[in-house]
Amino acid sequence: MDEKVLVEVNTKQIGRVCHYYGELTESELPVHKGQETAEKNQEVWQYREKLKGYYETNRKRMRYRTFIDAGYMTGSGAVESAHRTVIQQRLKLSGQRWTTLGEQQVLSLRVAKYSNYWDKVRDLTRNAA
Questions:
Q1: What are the pLDDT digits (tens) for 30-61?
Q2: HEC string of 37-98?
Q3: Cβ atoms within 10 Å of 55's Cβ, excluding its own
Q4: Structure pTM?
Q5: Which of 70, 74, 71, 57 is nearest to 12 (CA)?
Q6: Residue 10, Cβ neighbours under 10 Å: how many?
Q7: Which of 14, 43, 66, 124 is at 20 to 30 A from 1, Cα to Cα?
Q8: What is the spatial distance between Cα 67 and Cα 62, in angstroms, rounded to a whole number?
């Protein structure tokens, strides 16, 4: 990607990226040194169309500044960490075999525990007994 696009993506101005790519003609597309052939230009043009479509389709999901300002996390690190902590630590123990139902029941309890809902689960089980 050329520098102008990288700056705009990094500043989370997705609409401007779409607008920028929408205005380019095939002859204006960035071409890397040594790739001046018509075939490479066609590849770059096709990539541009695919990238533009991706940004236009996912524009609503890419409002990072809005999400950050509202207090939402925009990275996948927390989800990946929770997956390791909640799911993998329990289900991947040596010698463990799970049915789908058993797996779901254990994971539901672990999610409750790590979501600070364990007291509610305990109260429900006490009241049910």
A1: 555 555 566 666 777 787 788 888 888 888 88
A2: CHHHHHHHHHHHHHHHHHHHHHHHHHCHHHHHHCCCCCCCHHHHHHHHHHHHHHHCCCCCCC
A3: 20
A4: 0.45
A5: 74
A6: 8
A7: 66
A8: 9
